[in-house]
Amino acid sequence: MSQLRERYEEFVEVRASILALAPVGLEELSKQVLGLPFPCLADPQRAVFKQYGVLSRALSLGQRPAVFLVAPDGSIAASWLGKQQWQIPSVDEILRKVLEQGAD
């Protein structure tokens, strides 16, 4: 999330919004997201994660990472689902896909 925070203005420039989701309660979330320029929602029961098919890992701690590009009509324009925290696209790759899709 720190890379998204650092490059947030680039998303603003292409009229793309960022929404983060964390598998923790509000109290823990408030400690983790200080200084984020975009909203981050608490999902301690992982209900939204499950709706998008992003399941937690059974044999280790943590939530699988994922990135979804949601089109203006609400459809999923692109998605990435990793098995480990480092298996997410770079900010450059996300921005490139946003520009291909046309943010609104």
What does this structure look like?
A two-stranded parallel ribbon has the order 1-2. Strands 3-4 form a two-stranded antiparallel ribbon. Helices cover 33% and strands 16% of the residues. By secondary structure, it is of the alpha+beta class. β3 and β4 form a beta hairpin. 2% of the residues are buried. The protein has helices spanning 2-6, 8-13, 26-32, 47-51, 91-101, and strands at 20-22, 40-42, 66-70, 76-81. The mean pLDDT is 84. The protein has a single domain, classed as Glutaredoxin (3-Layer(aba) Sandwich). It starts with a helix and ends with a helix.
SSE layout and pairing:
Layout: H1 2-6, H2 8-13, E1 20-22, H3 26-32, E2 40-42, H4 47-51, E3 66-70, E4 76-81, H5 91-101
Parallel strand pairs: 1-2
Antiparallel strand pairs: 3-4
* Assigned CATH superfamily: Glutaredoxin
**Whole-number total of structural domains:** 1
The number of helices is 5
The number of E-state strands comes to 4
Largest sheet: 2 strands, parallel
What integer is the average pLDDT? 84
Report, as a whole number of angstroms, the end-to-end distance.
22 Å
What is the CA-based Rg, rounded? Answer: 14 Å
| The CATH topology | Glutaredoxin
Shape: globular
Strand order of the largest sheet: 1-2
* Class of secondary structure makeup: alpha+beta
| Unreliable spans | none
CATH class: Alpha Beta
